[in-house]
Amino acid sequence: MDGSVTHNGGTAAPTPGPAAAPGKVVPSAAGASIAFPAFDTGCTITAYGEPAAMQEALQAARDACREFEGLFSRTLPTSDIGRLNAAAGVAVEMDPRTFGLLQAACGYCAASEGAFDITVGALSDLWDFKEGRIPSSEVRTQAAAHVGWQRLELQRDDAGRCLARLADGDARVDLGGIAKGWIADELGEALLQAGATGAVLNLGGNVLVRGSKPDGSPWRIGIRNPLVQGSRASRYSVRLRSGSVVTSGIYERSFMGDGVCYHHILDPKTGMPVPCEAVSASVVAERSIDAEGYSTTLLALGPKRARGFLRRHPEIIQAVFILQDGIVLPTTK
Fold this sequence. Notes:
The chain has helices at 51-72, 80-86, 96-111, 121-124, 137-144, 179-193, 288-312, and strands spanning 4-7, 10-11, 26-27, 31-38, 41-48, 92-94, 152-156, 162-166, 198-203, 206-211, 219-224, 235-240, 243-249, 254-257, 260-263, 278-285, 316-323, 328-331. The chain is of the alpha+beta class. The protein has a domain at 80-166: ApbE-like superfamily (T-fold). Strand 14 and strand 15 (260-263) form a beta hairpin. It is globular and about 60 Å long.
């Protein structure tokens, strides 16, 4: 995911500089900012409002991110997702927030025309994009047999407990393609509830803006073109009063092998990278979970098929494709 927030040619607000300790709140005259690592990426949040209240709200946001990571990470054996994947088909009780995210994620899987599946973990585990390892066809076929979000069973029992079960004990849930969108929405609402007049959240490229800028002008969110050099020349921007921009790209995790680009957007049916007309697809939506939930799908569909998809999903405001030749192609309904 890749995005940034700019205005008047600069950053959206004062952000922690190199001397600021990670996770330390940096106050400003208009509010406060914080930067910290989470979700295997860097996160930056700025909140406008009464400085002392914003400092407290940002500390709470940082702590919430650590809590969410402890619930949703599939690499932590103690997380809800880690326990679900290790349960070998047995129902697991989990936090209502994890349960709600899983319910929402299944909706995006159903809408994706087969392009997005949260049980693709069995396939993604086979690839090593750092070392350039390509799994064999036989291994991919075996793993693909365990992919299918319909095998995830969610229910509340008579006591109100939230239970999840993978009917296929070898299936593996991975919420990496949607969790940050859900988290951004939660944090944005919490900051407004804490009294923020405006907020900018960048969770590793998942950008969400809420409220208003101090000068009342719209937020400007830049979309990086990875094929063009130079800060200004390489950015296409959208202006929002409130909303989110999330990008899925084949350049994020990839390697070249025999002249072929192997990337991490995998076809759930084959386990091979999806053929893509574009190097990235950015989705603009009011909710960040919508922007993230549909970005992978639109990248796989490509700009031609995207128009029909956008018409069927009014929650998508706009899609922006960066084509293989570097051309920026905004797509609307």
